[in-house]
């Protein structure tokens, strides 16, 4: 299984998580804005941020998919996480592309820039059970208009709204985009 690569875009570096990222990742997840939109419970702590990081490192090792730590090239600042997600989770539609950034770095186009590179990598490099990826998904709650806007900028369309078993209190929008040339 290919390890998590380091990728470079115009303004960002997408790189594997390191053990010493835990405080930077927790700083992102501990902001009121991110807590609100990710529906993180009050008890969600630094240890949970470490588990999340370790989960993505493990997912890269097991499946060749996962989120990257995202850094700003100009400053080296840790701006958040973005990339791919294929959890073992009932009802999950398929390989997801997603983004979560520190609010200090919203409004700069970084989520779209990281998401576009994650999509490129998924369609060009990822193999799932030996096959190329034909379609990517994003699971986005209906009131999360900022995330929906990123999905739209990346050429995704809303396929349906569906309650996913891991989050029974509201339906998720299932956004999707097919590999270029395959139609939508
Ligand atoms: C979802 C999230 C990553 C979106 O962040 P964002 O900054 O709005 O999205 P982008 O990085 O694509 O930036 C787009 C904005 O930057 C602006 N922008 C500025 N410079 C830009 C540039 N060079 N290129 C592109 N856009 C640029 C755009 O105009 C747009 O602003 P607008 O929202 O006022 O129209 C962020 O809101 C977040 O982390 N939310 C909490 C976690 C979350 O909900 N994750 C998703 C769960 S489904």
How many E strands? 10
* Sheet/helix structural class: alpha+beta
> What is the total number of structural domains?
1
What name does the CATH topology carry?
Aminopeptidase
Global Rg = 15 Å
Task: From the structure above, extract its key features.
single chain, 184 residues, alpha+beta, Aminopeptidase, 3-stranded antiparallel sheet, 5 helices, 32% helix, binds coenzyme A
Write the layout of secondary structure elements.
Layout lengths: L6 E2 L3 E4 L6 H8 L2 H7 L7 H18 L3 E6 L5 E8 L10 E6 L8 H16 L1 E2 L2 E2 L2 E6 L4 H9 L3 E8 L2 E12 L6
Antiparallel strand pairs: 1-2, 2-3, 3-4, 4-5, 6-7, 8-10, 9-10
Helix pairs in contact: 1-3
Structural features, described:
There is one protein chain. By secondary structure, this protein is an alpha+beta fold. It has a single domain (7-178), classed as Gcn5-related N-acetyltransferase (GNAT) (Aminopeptidase), CATH 3.40.630. It is 32% helix and 30% strand. The chain has 5 helices and 10 strands; from the N terminus they run ββαααβββαβββαββ. It has helices spanning 22-29, 32-38, 46-63, 110-125, 145-153, and strands at 7-8, 12-15, 67-72, 78-85, 96-101, 127-128, 131-132, 135-140, 157-164, 167-178. The strands form 3 sheets. It has a 5-stranded antiparallel sheet with strand order 1-2-3-4-5, with helices on both faces. The protein has a 3-stranded antiparallel sheet with strand order 8-10-9. α1 packs across α3. The two termini are 29 Å apart. Coenzyme A binds next to α2, β5, α4 and α5.
